[in-house]
Specification:
The protein is of the alpha+beta class and 356 residues long. The chain folds into 2 domains: 25-220, Neurotransmitter-gated ion-channel ligand-binding domain (Acetylcholine Binding Protein, Chain: A), CATH 2.70.170; 223-355, Methane Monooxygenase Hydroxylase, Chain G, domain 1, CATH 1.20.58. 40% of the residues lie in helices and 29% in strands. A 6-stranded mixed sheet has the order 3-5-6-2-1-8. Strands 4-7-12-9 form a 4-stranded antiparallel sheet, with no helix packed on it. Strand 10 (200-201) and strand 11 (207-208) form a beta hairpin. It is rod-shaped.
Length: 356
């Protein structure tokens, strides 16, 4: 009876061991975690939607790992790798263990995908997948329109923990990760691709392997800066004119306040219209503080200051009543250069901070 139970137990263990070593199971021949090397190349970038923080691109994701079960006999050690493409590659992948790497930040359905597979005599496997789709990416607005953005591709394995499968990259992967020589993106200059390992937190404190590939792009700022900043600086002149154009003779203002108030109110409506136009075209500017936001704020503050000067000093002569006509005249002579200097210095500083 004992021999029968022992034989039965051994048969179960043998069956489990055999099942564990099926070609599609996790290759544990070299221990855990299984190391998967990641590289990403940006083949084509067709669009960047700043308002939705997404971009459309064709990317090549290269994965490399080692499966000792695929080693060929020693006499074939110097043979070239077996190469499979398209449908043939898909058929081969059905009989291999393949790391379940997901593109976490993909949005919508994939419009195109293709695979290429290489299996080397020593058991190393190289899988390259070309995907065309839309991907979400973080978008920073602090330096708009002199900004640099990073178009991210987020790759992760969420089915297994980092103790089972780890994603990593070496110098060869960094060299592979780059934009294609003929890749272009209207309004942007393409830079380098960087890779960063950043674990993904799962349930119950589990950690999953993740790699972030980022293509740096720099905005061609000239056309946008001219279209936005020239009107903004021009609108700053309106409230300043409301102070400059008055005259003082013997301590008395010579022009009626009503004319200047109309000028200021007209400037207010001009700034509101410009603000509405800019926010309609660049909705993402509402996501945070940026030079455009600060220049609009400066416009409103300057309009408010000009209105107060016109009402309190020009119209009601508050300073004259409290401190005398001479003080009022000297205060006005101070304001006609101090206010413009302060406003223009602040506006220039906002632009320089964004540029630098």
């Amino acid at each position: 009876m004992k021999r029968t139970l022992l034989a039965f137990a051994l048969s179960i263990i043998g069956a489990c061991a055999a099942a564990a070593q099926t070609p599609t199971s996790l290759p544990i021949g070299k221990g855990l975690p299984v190391l998967v090397k990641v590289a990403v190349a940006f083949v084509e970038i067709t669009a960047l939607n700043e308002n939705t923080s997404t971009y459309k691109a064709t990317v090549d994701v290269r994965l490399r790992w080692e499966d000792p079960r695929l080693r060929r006999p020693s006499e074939e050690a110097t043979d070239p790798p077996k190469v499979y493409r398209g449908a043939e590659a898909q058929a081969q992948l059905a009989n291999l263990w393949v790391p379940a790497v997901e593109v976490v930040n993909q949005r919508g359905a994939v419009t195109y995908t293709a695979a290429g597979l290489r299996v080397y005599p020593d058991g190393k496997v190289e899988l390259t997948t070309r995907t065309n789709g839309e991907f979400a990416t973080p978008f920073e607005v602090e330096r708009f329109p002199f900004d640099r953005q990073k178009l991210q591709l987020e790759l992760a394995i969420r089915g297994l923990t980092a103790d089972a499968v780890a994603l990593q990259f070496e110098q060869d992967d960094l060299e592979y990760s780059r934009p294609a020589a003929n890749a272009r993106l209207d309004g942007w200059t393409l830079g380098l691709v960087s890779l960063r390992s950043e674990p993904l937190t799962g349930w119950y404190g589990a950690s999953h392997a993740r790699v972030l590939a980022s293509l740096e792009v720099a905005r061609v700022s000239g056309p946008i800066a001219a279209a936005i900043f020239i009107p903004l600086f021009a609108s700053l002149l309106i409230p300043l004119l409301g102070i400059w154009l008055n005259r003082v003779e013997d301590g008395q203002f010579q022009i009626e306040t009503f004319e200047f108030v109309n000028l200021i109110v007209g400037g207010l409506f001009a700034v509101i219209a410009l603000n509405f136009t800019v926010n309609s075209l660049y909705q993402f500017l509402a996501q945070g503080e940026n030079p455009v936001h600060w220049l609009f704020a400066l416009n409103y503050v300057t309009l408010g200051v000009s209105l107060l000067v016109n009402v309190l000093i020009f119209r009601f002569g508050v300073v004259e009543r409290l401190l005398g006509r001479y003080v009022q005249e000297q205060l006005y002579l101070f304001l006609i250069w101090a206010v413009p200097l302060l406003v223009l210095t602040t506006a220039t500083a906002v632009i320089l901070v964004a540029v630098v």
